[in-house]
Amino acid sequence: MNWITNSVLPKIQALVRREVPDNLWHKCVACGQMIFHRDLEQNLHVCPECGHHLRIGPIERLKMVFDEGKYDTIQLPKPALDPLKFRDQKRYTDRLREAQTKTGRNDAMVVAHGTIGGVPAVAAVFDFGFMGGSMGTGVGDALVRAAKLAETQNAALLVFPSSGGARMQEGILSLMQMPRTVAAVDRIKERGLPFIVILTDPTTGGVTASFAMLGDIHLAEPGSIIGFAGQRVIQETIREQLPDGFQRAEYLLEHGMVDAVVHRKDLKATLGRILALLLRPRPTAQIVALPQPDVEIPGKAPATKDDGKSTNHVADTRTPAGESD
Ligand SMILES: [Zn+2]
Predict the structure, then answer these.
(1) Same structural domain for residues 122 and 240?
(2) How many angstroms separate the CA atoms of 142 and 78, rounded?
(3) 40 Cα: distance to centroid of ligand 1 (angstroms)
(4) Is 111 domain-assigned?
(5) What is the pLDDT of residues 81-100, one digit of tens each?
(6) Which of these, 4, 146, 219, 320, could form a disulfide with 124 (CB 3.0-4.6 Å)?
């Protein structure tokens, strides 16, 4: 009988038994509804019952925004391992390694490039699953690289923050990433390229206090928490009850901190439209009539006559605006 129990039975069991993963159903954190994983994926991780936008990882995000879900990620440098030899309940080195094993990433940011609505774009996406998306030197490095890539490609820079703020285990070095990232996005602006921030749940602390609030355009996902200090901390400090919906995307929209609150299903189209407007200043339709060469543009200064070096005299033969024959 031993050979039956030891050899035959496991084989039959292996044939009959089907693996049932334990993550087929997800519970909505807002309304408690159980949602089948395939429905959730189809619905872009938005609860079909209450419309709550669940947190998503960087890969889902990238697939969602780039054309046909196609993009290329860039290699990011490994962050300096525990520069301050920091230790709380655990050593920072151990925390970092755990997060790296769990996520398969060097740090809490993924940088990718591709096109959105046919317009080139570079996206830097936070991974909240990596130590709460906290910003240390690794994230600083990643954002600087993203900005440089956008500059090289003449592309728009998009950032999707989802972060608890600065990484306290890196102390002053994490705070130094605030001016560093601000300088990086400033270069993008100097080049005249668009910098668009898509605020997702949650955007807090040092990330809010630096580049995340400096976008040319701020979009936000519905219901996202966006703020610097937490609501409870503020309430305890000022000893006052805060209004309903405080620090939520909709509240920030009402108070002029956010340009639009966009549902996840509309995000790609909205981004495509914005990028087309900002980076494609030529008309999308065919031009049917050529502009008349002799039409004077009112208010336009005549071409410089005093410029002795100029060899192009075409402009001089025209009647300057404002003078009549
Ligand atoms: Zn729900």
Answers:
(1) yes
(2) 10
(3) 11
(4) yes
(5) 788 899 989 999 999 999 99
(6) 146
Q: Measured in angstroms, how far is the CA atom of residue 72 from the centroid of ligand 1?
A: 33
Ligand 1 centroid to Cα of residue 63, in Å, is 23
Kindly state whether residue 17 falls inside one of the protein's structural domains.
no
Per-residue pLDDT at 208 exceeds 70: yes
Same domain, 265 and 120: yes
Q: What is the pTM for the complete model shown? A: 0.80
Name the least confident of 13-22, 115-124, 137-146, 153-162: 13-22
Q: Which domain holds residue 127?
A: 56-279
Joined together, the tokens standing for residue 281 give: 């200043």
Residue 285 lies inside a defined structural domain of this protein: no
Buried b (16+ CB within 10 A) or exposed e, 25-45: ebebeeeeeebeeeebeeebb
Q: What is the distance in A from the centroid of ligand 1 to the CA of 71? A: 30
CA of 26 to the centre of ligand 1 (A): 10
Mean pLDDT of 39-60: 95
C-alpha 198 to ligand 1 mean position (Å): 22
**Dihedral angle at the C-alpha atoms of 176, 177, 178, 184, nearest 10 degrees?**
120
User: Residue 55 Cα, ligand 1 centroid: separation in angstroms?
Assistant: 13
